[in-house]
Amino acid sequence: MMRLIGLGRMGLGMARRLKGKGLAVSGFDPNPEARARAEAAGIPVAESLEALARAPGDPRLFWLMVPHEAVEAVLEALIPLLRPGDLVADGGNSFYKESRRRAQVLAERGVGFVDVGISGGVRGEVEGYGLMVGGVSAHVGAFWPYLEALAPEGGGLVHAGGPGAGHYAKMVHNAVEYGLMEAYAEGVELLAAGKELGLDPAQVVAAWRQGTIVRGFLLDRLAEVLAEGVEGIAPVVAETGEARWALMEALERRVSLPAIAQAFFARLESQDRTGLRLRVLAALRHAFGGHEVVRE
């Protein structure tokens, strides 16, 4: 039985998909509302982590589906409840070096560890999740029926390598995602700049979804966004760590990632409410070239 810890949007969707595929799954979430939603969906829910661990069923497969910031705390609470032969999977966006360390810590207790990078978001419940898995083959094999059930039909699942490999692959995946999103956004801005040509960015992007070499999942989402309109949305784009980690790795490994770096810094710039860099640039242009400065 899969024991799923974390029944938020992703976790609950995964639980429902597993249940729909005929696989046994139970869950726990410290949030009573999350537990209530899972129970309403027919998912057996434990009232505590201890109760989840005591539930019958072997092998004991625990799957953490919590934000990477919470993984360490959940593991600290779970470790005293584990016994040799148990297996733990981390489905969050954890840093791969932390996953390697956790695999070693659990191995010393006779517990297996698998790291799973997951892509697909809330649509994954219906369409399947892209899964990048790291761990010892025997440990990954124990989770394999569940991994196959979560993945799209006919693909989207890879045993990427040893401990840490799944989260390393997901780190790179998310960094690539940053670059793709930035390129699409820049293209829309350039389309919008061609007003005198009568261009409608929403119509053009919608047409790109068929037959072009830039079509794909993100472009489909972009077309939907443009159809709804972006008025009223603040130009602030969060970054959650994965591209930052990828750039740190690139520096250490001497790999050049210019497009991903530019996309990452664009996100940082969007969060700079003071605009100090741009103010400095404007003042400097005035200082050396006498260029006019716009005053607020």
Main pleated-sheet profile: 7 strands, mixed
Unreliable parts: none
Distance N to C terminus = 62 Å
Q: Give the integer mean of the pLDDT values.
A: 92
> What structural class results from the helix and strand content?
alpha/beta
SSE layout and pairing:
Blueprint: E1 2-5, H1 9-20, E2 25-28, H2 32-40, H3 49-54, E3 61-64, H4 68-78, E4 87-90, H5 96-107, E5 112-119, H6 124-127, E6 130-134, H7 137-150, E7 157-161, H8 165-193, H9 201-208, H10 217-228, H11 242-253, H12 258-270, H13 276-289
Parallel strand pairs: 1-2, 1-3, 3-4, 4-5, 6-7
Antiparallel strand pairs: 5-6
Helix pairs in contact: 8-9, 8-11, 8-12, 9-10
Annotation keywords:
alpha/beta; seven-stranded mixed sheet; 296 residues; 13 helices
Short description:
This protein has 296 residues and is of the alpha/beta class. Helices cover 53% and strands 11% of the residues. It is built from 13 helices and seven strands.
Description:
This protein has 296 residues and is of the alpha/beta class. It contains 13 helices and seven strands. It has helices at residues 9-20, 32-40, 49-54, 68-78, 96-107, 124-127, 137-150, 165-193, 201-208, 217-228, 242-253, 258-270, 276-289; strands at residues 2-5, 25-28, 61-64, 87-90, 112-119, 130-134, 157-161. A seven-stranded mixed beta sheet has the order 2-1-3-4-5-6-7, sandwiched between helices. Strand 4 (87-90), helix 5 (96-107) and strand 5 (112-119) form a beta-alpha-beta unit. Helix 8 packs across helix 12 (258-270) and helix 9 runs antiparallel to helix 10 (217-228). The longest helix is centred in the middle third of the chain and has 29 residues, at 165-193. The termini are far apart.
